[in-house]
Amino acid sequence: MMAKKPPKPAPRRIFQERLKITALPLYFEGFLLVKRSGYQYEHYWTELRGTTLFFYTDKKSTIYIDKLDIIDLTCLAEQNSTEKNCAKFTLVLPKEEVQLKTENTESGEEWRGFILTVTELSVPQNVSLLPGQVIKLHEVLEREKKRRIETEQSTSVEKEKEPTEDYVDVLNPMPACFYTVSRKEATEMLQKNPSLGNMILRPGSDSTNYSITIRQEIDMPRIKHYKVMSVGQNYTIELEKPVTLPNLFSVIDYFVKETRGNLRPFICSTDENTGQEPNMEGRSEKLKKNPHIA
């Protein structure tokens, strides 16, 4: 039998959207069966970006539904599989163990090679790969070393800076679905451009809190708004049972995961012919002058 052809990469537009959202370089990608503690195996299109695995419901999704930071990987343990043409291994992390299963043994060796390369910062010697695949591992190794150096330098520079009140929004990155718009404007954006997503993060009615506006289609389209309160260094979603999370990215992740991907961040794209993007610049200036816009 002929070996399976490697999966084709996602279209360029999707790649660019994922890069914008994750802000990490792509090293390897493909389908994986993933089993986390307390769950069954789930089939995901998976990307290794930096030292993080991002999981997508399918190859064309731009928004990941889950992610796994593997920088503190303790070991990668291989498992004996009774299934033919399949590789199984376990990622042992400080707080959990995650089982991975690949569609064939060749992709299993590739995943093992790339994961060990970025976590150990060295190319493993005990992987069965072709010369061209080993070259790719060395290229990824150099890219990851460079990325970590740049990240450390950037962190060092940010610590030296003294943040000013006027530029807090610049120094703190926001999720891609954040727009400085009012409740009414957010509703109009979701209604006019449903293909771009159905969830917007926006400023709340004061200068410190936020709101989530979503559009759901169950029996008929419905708009809902949720308050996200800034509490110390954390953010609390005001639900019947409040949920507190460490940052706004986690807030967006929570809504996506809790709805199993039915809620998708609203992200404007100039690559699609869906009409002109909403003009956010004017709103941003107005917000700085009057932080109580809601």
From TrEMBL:
Please give an example of a GO cellular component term from this record. Answer: nuclear body
Looking up CDD domains in the UniProt record yields: SH2_STAP1
Write down the superkingdom of origin.
Answer: Eukaryota
- Write out the GO biological process terms: cellular response to lipopolysaccharide; negative regulation of macrophage chemotaxis; negative regulation of macrophage colony-stimulating factor signaling pathway; negative regulation of microglial cell migration; negative regulation of ruffle assembly; positive regulation of B cell receptor signaling pathway; positive regulation of gene expression; positive regulation of microglial cell activation
Question: What keyword terms does UniProt attach to this protein?
Answer: Phosphoprotein, SH2 domain
Q: Where is this region: Disordered?
A: 270-294
* Domain SH2 per the UniProt entry, residue ranges: 181-255
SMART domains found in the cross-reference section: PH (SM00233)
A GO molecular-function term, please? phosphotyrosine residue binding
Q: Domain PH, which positions?
A: 25-120
Write down what this protein is called. Signal transducing adaptor family member 1
Q: Which organism is it from?
A: Macaca fascicularis (Crab-eating macaque)
Q: Which gene encodes it?
A: STAP1
